[in-house]
Amino acid sequence: MKVKIKRYINGEYRWDEFNIDAEGVTVLEILQKIKEEQDPILSFRAMCRAGICGTCAVKVNGEHKLACNTRVYDDITVEPVDIAPPVKDLVVDHSFFLNKLKEGKVWIEPLPTNVPVKPDELKATEKSWDCILCGICNYVCPAIQEDKNFGLPSTFTKAYRVIFDKRNANKEKLKDLVPLNIQSCTHCKNCTFVCPKDCNPEFLIKMLENTMLRYGLIKKEQQQDFGFLGF
What are the distances in angstroms from CA 129 to CA 45, 153, 157, 158, 160? Predict the structure, then answer.
């Protein structure tokens, strides 16, 4: 199997090609094999190897995937993800979307007393809880490329569980999302199509946006498509 890897080294990109004896293995296993047997300085991120931590996101044959749960059977190309600033080889800087979580204050402020939650009450927010912050939804989002203040799909996905969780003491959490320009979302559904955990970020964004409109926190403007949805 031929494996072409786009690497970021000393401020420049270059393609390196490796030949390995493997089939039906994950992209992460391929990267580990190359690092162990051919190129010990190859850099990439990986932790759990079980599709839970989200750190191993890369582009495989031009599509954003988790390296740990993407199996391949033929020649492949592996590249760093889009949008995120490169650090080395396949490693990129995640701080741009982690900072958005801080801007939106996406965390639960607990009540002074315990509030029991029944399983059926968690049903509405379970997809939001499934988000592993792999960032793939952000890497394919056209809105962030046009509006740098846009809060990103990952932020709004995480925010959904906070807003609609009755254990949250701050009942005005929606106001924290106002500066993140949720209305800049084009609803192209790119984020939903690529999400490895089927969190359906676009739907959660739509629900939050409708709630913010209802409370008068944002105004509905003419839908922008930034040229991505035009015919």
Answer: 23, 14, 8, 7, 9
47 DSSP assignment: S
Residue extents of the structural domains in the chain: 2-92, 95-214
- pLDDT grade for 221, boundaries at 50, 70 and 90: low
Q: Does the pTM exceed 0.85?
A: yes
119 burial type by CB count under 10 A (0-12 exposed, 13-18 middle, 19+ buried): exposed
Most confident of 162-166, 205-209, 223-227: 205-209
pLDDT tens digits, 126-166: 999 999 999 999 999 999 999 999 999 999 999 999 999 88
* 113 within 8 A of 138, measured Cβ to Cβ: no
Give the residue ranges of DSSP H helices in 115-200. Answer: 119-122, 126-130, 136-139, 143-146, 153-163, 190-194
Locate 129 and state its tokens: 């809880």
Give, in words, the CATH class of 95-214.
mainly alpha
Amino acid at 52: I
